[in-house]
Amino acid sequence: MTLADAHGYGLLEDVSVAWRAGRIDYVGPRAGCPRRPHEWEAEGALLTPGLIDSHTHLVFAGDRAGEFEQRLLGASYAEIAAAGGGIASTVRATRHADEDALLAASLPRALALRADGVTTLEIKSGYGLSLDSERRMLRVARRIPALTGQDVRTSFLGAHALPPEFADRGDDYIATLAHDWLPALAAEGLVDAVDAFCETIGFSPPQVERLFAAARALGLPVRLHADQLSDQGGAALLARYRGLSADHLEYTSAEGVAALAAAGCVAVLLPGAFYSLRETKRPPIEALRAASVPMAVATDLNPGSSPLCALRPALNMACLLFGLTPEEALRGATVHAARALDLHDRGRIVPGLRADLVLWQATQPSELVYWLSGLPPRLVVAGGAPVEPA
Ligand code: DI6
Ligand code: FE
User: Fold this and answer.
1) Which domains are assigned to the chain?
2) Cα of 304 to ligand 1 centre, how many Å?
3) Which of 45, 266, 268, 329 has its CA 20 to 30 A from that of 53?
4) 1 near 350, Cβ under 8 Å?
5) Which ligand lies nearest to the CA atom of residue 124 in the structure?
6) Number of the ligand 1 atom closest to the C-alpha atom of 127
7) Closest residue by CA, ligand 1 atom 11
8) How many CA atoms lie within 13 A of 35 on its CB side?
9) How many A from CA of 53 to the centre of ligand 1?
């Protein structure tokens, strides 16, 4: 499955794929394939681009299984957050973990994604909410590639929740993020993009705008948790800043969809959060499709609203809960996910692109979406190096 063209899976049969120095340099008939020191027989298997998880909160300490029980007894996500649980409880656990402990807690989640074919992932900060602990989260994210072979893009999500030190001082907190923390962390090379949680229980659109203006001044792209629990005009706000992606979008209006389309932004769908929160309002898939907004699908891997360490189940949910086709879901975890991360060198099997490849024991692409679990890759190659089986 090459996804070489704008439509269709781009299936090729009886071909060989070769790479050198981390880049694909041959896709074509076996006879013409250059010989390489290592060769893998792929008879009866399906080769796809490495999967890309474009939205995760993978670095954190602790868990929130207790809140899962509370929610099953009727408490809402917003009520738990208002009572000091939710994101704040993960912040407490994350602040207590030193860098090595945080890495030890987070690494198995990156490996779990890898074991399901993910070769590139985005990781957000946002559970530290102090300069030191946000830095620690981002440093842990930066350490993962050397340990797993995956490529990681970081997003600074200081504007995830209001830390206790800034209680009732949201504007002061945003000013601190914009003028102190973000420039400091960006100068340390820890930030690839800036994200925020635009919501009644998060930050208001004017607050997000002030942060986005600071990101723009630093030359950093933005993305946004937009319209997840209510319509905040988040998608349109993101589009005004020509952001990379607007994520969640359950409550996005027709105007928001039109703004995303006009600005060329990616819509990142997060069905794991929709499922875990037992949300009933779906993102406006038909409108996004009609407006040709590229749709990515990601895990939203986090301890509160999406405890999901595998991308393919999210693709399955995107089909069954949101109505995507398997082709749309697979594009959402490859080409469109790459675009959401501003990465233009991956997501398809085409000469010149990174050799991020997965070999599956499957005969057709839809099998990758159809199996909820139990389809381990036969081989995962990340940047030209085999990394799975581990
Ligand atoms: N929306 C989400 O779904 C996650 N963050 C956000 O802004 C949830 C994070 C959490 O509950 O810990
Ligand atoms: Fe999220």
Assistant:
1) 15-48+350-388 (2.30.40.10), 51-340 (3.20.20.140)
2) 6
3) 45
4) no
5) 2
6) 12
7) 304
8) 1
9) 16
